[in-house]
Design brief:
Helix content: 25-40%
Mean pLDDT: 95
Radius of gyration: 20 Å
Order of helices and strands: EHEHEEHEHHEEHHEHEHHEHEEH
Distance between the termini: 18 Å
Number of helices: 12
Low-confidence stretches: none
Largest sheet: 12 strands, mixed
Strand order of the largest sheet: 3-4-2-1-5-12-11-6-7-10-8-9
Strand content: 15-25%
Structural class: alpha/beta
Length: 329
Amino acid sequence: MPLAVTPGEPAGIGPDLVLRQALNSHPGPWFVIADPALLASRADRLGLAVTLREIQSPDELTDHTPGILPVLPVALRQPCKPGVLNPANAAYVLQTLDVAIDLALANRVALVTGPVHKGVINEGGIPFTGHTEYLEQKAGVDQVVMMLATEGLRVALVTTHLPLSAVPKAITADKLKRVTAVLHASLIQDFGCPTPHILVTGLNPHAGESGHLGREEIDIIEPALDELRALGWQLEGPLPADTLFQPHYLNRADAVLAMYHDQGLPVLKYKGFGAAVNITLGLPFIRTSVDHGTALDLAGTGQASDGSLAVALTTAFDMANHRSQHTHA
């Protein structure tokens, strides 16, 4: 299955990273959904010898040839300068994503996304909270899960882009069971873990300290995990988040499930920033993404690292391979 890549914000480093990856070898075919003129201009600015080949369908692809980048064209709304945001191009960003989603829903591609700028999309008059929520809505699924991964560590989240004050009310037994079920199924189907072992954090310091620092662990998290353990699932927790991220626990686990964004992701990004991947679980198609933002100050300079995009591409190919093997097993 080929990969469809959306570079994201045109004024950011997404186009730069895609062009640099086009020079490298990859295990299968992939193409980019973008404005060919934007990519040609950025390649010229960066001095990258990449040949752009316009396509109309992923069916035209056979394999990846280093130095040749297939492009399914979508036109910018207005010309773009590196590092300069333009709300007029917000619709362009979402159009590239919509084209990719349609192909993915038709089971024709796996999806890899570059960084978007949430603020400028909203300034363009389009309500947008992030890729994960947008994909969930477009795919029409009940529950997706955001997971970041780097070598030796996978961290999934029960809640994603919420104010910290809204997190406790968002963690219900039903949501926790649905998120855990998506994570458990994906570890089997997409990552080759036949009997997943998942570590689950508590919400409060010291996992509530037996109720003295909060009762969410006693009233919500523990009962929900007990229900799932009754199915034979290997779930360990709720564990204090400040002591969970150490070899004593991680060496026997396939993933960590954290309660909120800034509980689990700082550790993951400290361990693997620039070599990590953002994965959306629970969609009817594979989606990976870079673990960083648009880095407007680096756009067009040649100084941005393409390490995370390389991992996102490799992970998408690996997940597609695992999913194919699982489906035909």
